[in-house]
Amino acid sequence: MKLIHTADLHLDSPLANFSAEQAKERRAELLDTFRRMVEFADKEGVCAILIAGDLFDSVKQVRKRTVKMILETVSLYPNIHFFYLAGNHDGGANLLVGNEAIPQNLHTFSDQWTTYDLGEASITAAQNPLPEALSLNSEQTNIILLHGQVTDTFSASGDEIPLRAYAEKGIDYLALGHIHSFAEYRVDDRAIACYSGTPEGRGFDECGEKGFVLLEITPGKRLQTRFVPFAKRTLHEIRLDLSGCNTQTELERRAEMALAPIPATDLVKLTVCGEVDPDFEPDYHRIDRYLSERFWFGRRKDESALLIRPEDYQNDRSLKGEFIRLVRADESLTDAERDAVIRIGLQALYGRKEIDL
Question: What is the rounded CA–CA span in Å between residue 32 and residue 232?
């Protein structure tokens, strides 16, 4: 028996950091990933897909046609059961309830613990769960859907999930939603809790492999899990250290080497860091153009700082030299304060917009 655990698709996200055309394309890709996942489930003989919250990004932003396409996709695969627990972004209400034609293979949950029996396993969830009210048949393979932030406590409030409160209850697997990266926790000797993460990253706070969890219940009721990378595009944040770089050619060589392994279809944020010699003025326009031409989406962030050695200007007959001598002669400042003032002043004199202490 195979099942898929997914969560946090956030369909119809605004995606404000992209151009209007890119945001439109990316929203379509998020919806297509849901359909691709269902096709994968059908080919692999998966009997149920568990959606642990935040299928949609917002009650106000979700389009009727998006809801319609989800329902149509579910209807096309009557051999697969869909279990949908609404999350905090779903508004605490099930956006699929109240539609004209709810497929019979789509199952939702109320404020009370509700259990669906699939024969080899049971699926249980509730909108605002009370762990103490949960009662399970320990002879069964028990899978629980929850949406929230795990805590290592016995009680919690709001969207928190107190893992200790779910120990020793006959649970085999806690299918979690809310955190957008894969993570796994041990609850007790029998149960594990797992965040599937989001199937597709939407911003650079969601970098790395994204996908879903494939569960298989083997003879003897042994539960096996495997994370399946599945995203159409992956987001990457690459840090490019420019320390010791003195020419544009060297800068571009370093950038090309750092970005070489990344597919052109992916999204990249190149963060420039390190200390740059004041006499070297990087042409970042060339880097920006390279990023936009090389990847589906690319952006640059500058966290670099000037490599400033105050002693180099001690005897310099210039405004910079005079500034440094005046600061060093100020006995009201500590050594650390003098260094900070000199650094800020020189960065200002060099015309740097970003000042890093």
Answer: 9
